[in-house]
Design a protein that fits this description.
seven-stranded parallel beta sheet; eight-stranded mixed beta sheet; mainly beta; single chain
């Protein structure tokens, strides 16, 4: 219902043909210490005024892990987000704080920002099994940022090398064809201090 407020804690949510959890129409959800798996989307957050906080939870083995879209807001903190068929987290036209998560072994990128998605990324851990690691790709794209037209504008790859180093690389592509930078997705990526 619109404007509803809810806390879900210590719950197992599994085996849904669509979304494990849906937050929409200006509602607010706090999800703590939950396990969400085997659904089309583990957590689906949508709509202006919709707010979701998910902490200390496992979201795994879905088609997509967490999707935040259409001007919703989310705080995604201290979770394990792994083993999804596609991306672990998708932020489309929304804002999210993504902090201290373990984002691993996803079939596509760990985090995708689309159509003006804004995100602060801090102290997240990625490994080298994202992006079809099972097919032999040694290192993978952990964070992908795309513009409104769907063209890759910035590809920021955060990859674990050995056990204690994250390499951050950015690639600019197609800047000449972009006439309006105000609509681009933006992100702030901060690495854990021990990786500096």
């Amino acid at each position: 219902a619109g404007g509803a407020m809810c806390t879900v804690q210590d719950s197992i949510i599994s085996g849904n043909t669509r979304h494990g959890v849906t937050v929409q129409e200006g509602s607010e959800l706090t999800m703590l210490c939950c396990h969400v798996d085997h659904s089309s989307t583990g957590l689906f957050v949508t709509g202006d005024g919709t707010v979701c906080t998910v902490e200390h939870s496992h979201v795994e083995r879905c088609d997509r892990g967490i999707v935040v879209q259409d001007s919703a807001q989310a705080v995604i903190r201290r979770n394990r987000i792994r083993r999804h068929a596609q991306e672990g987290i998708n932020i489309t036209g929304s804002r999210a704080e993504i902090t201290k998560n373990r984002i691993t072994r996803n079939g596509a990128e760990g985090i995708v920002l689309l159509r003006g998605g804004h995100s602060n990324l801090r102290d997240n851990r990625f490994d080298d099994k994202d992006k079809a690691g099972s097919k032999g790709t040694p290192y993978s794209m952990a964070v992908l940022i795309k513009d409104d037209a769907g063209g890759d504008m910035i590809a920021a790859a955060c990859q674990r090398i050995s056990n204690d180093l994250i390499a951050v690389m950015s690639q600019l592509d197609g800047m000449e064809s972009q006439s309006d930078s105000s609509s681009l997705s933006s992100t702030n990526i901060e690495l854990p201090e021990e990786f500096d």
